[in-house]
Amino acid sequence: MAPIEEIAAGLARSATAAAGVPVRSAILHGSVATGDFLPGRSDIDLLLVVGGPLPDTAAGALERLVRNTDPGPASGIDLHVVTAAVASAPSPAPPLELHVGRYDGSSVGVEVERRVAAAPDLPAELSMARADGRAVLGAAPADVLGPVPAAWVRDRGRHWLREWQSRTGDTEDAAHMVLTACRIWLFAVEGRHSAKTPAARWALERDPSLTAIPQALHQYTTDPAAPVSEAGIARVLETVLRDDAV
């Protein structure tokens, strides 16, 4: 097992112990599960499916766990907690028990959301975990996560593409916006989730003129200080939104 997989599995076991309610499944997804992990740039993505509402004491314990865990070569930790009832029958904006996002080296730092009544980004998270996730403890992803209609994922992707059109000058999130736009595009066209780097290569094959994509790849994989053209970002977003599949 690779070091990052050992760290991620240890985090999953510790989170399960801290949850305060029965955990149906602790699912690693994202780059650690798919083998696309990039040291210093990729997060550890963990989804806990729990048997019932999360006690306040457990939410506090999980937040402390995310804050204090040594993530090793990961750039942060992204923990979502949902009930089994929500996970098995997703809706377009399902309730979320807890989200703790730790983004080392960013201006955000740590983000905590507790008892969110409607979380429209959650269905895409559940869809990715069901497609590519791996259970460290408990049931397999397909046994606890119900299918998410592709239309919901595409709709939320369009939301973010339009949101980012007003933020093309955000240098901190430049690579994230461009590479996630590539992932949104690939899913819309082919119905499959992808990591950032292969999605970017797919998008470049589809339209080699999108110069912001190699710039974003270079920033993401090699040089965090490398620039990404604001006009180029705008063109990527416009191109993806213009595709009839999106």
TrEMBL record:
Coiled coil: none annotated. Pfam families: AadA_C (PF13427), NTP_transf_2 (PF01909). This is DUF4111 domain-containing protein. Residues 23-55 form the Polymerase nucleotidyl transferase domain. It comes from Dactylosporangium fulvum. The keyword Transferase applies. Keywords: Transferase. Residues 144-222 form the Adenylyltransferase AadA C-terminal domain. InterPro entries: AadA_C, NT_sf, Polymerase_NTP_transf_dom. Gene3D superfamilies: Beta Polymerase, domain 2. CDD domains: NT_KNTase_like (cd05403).
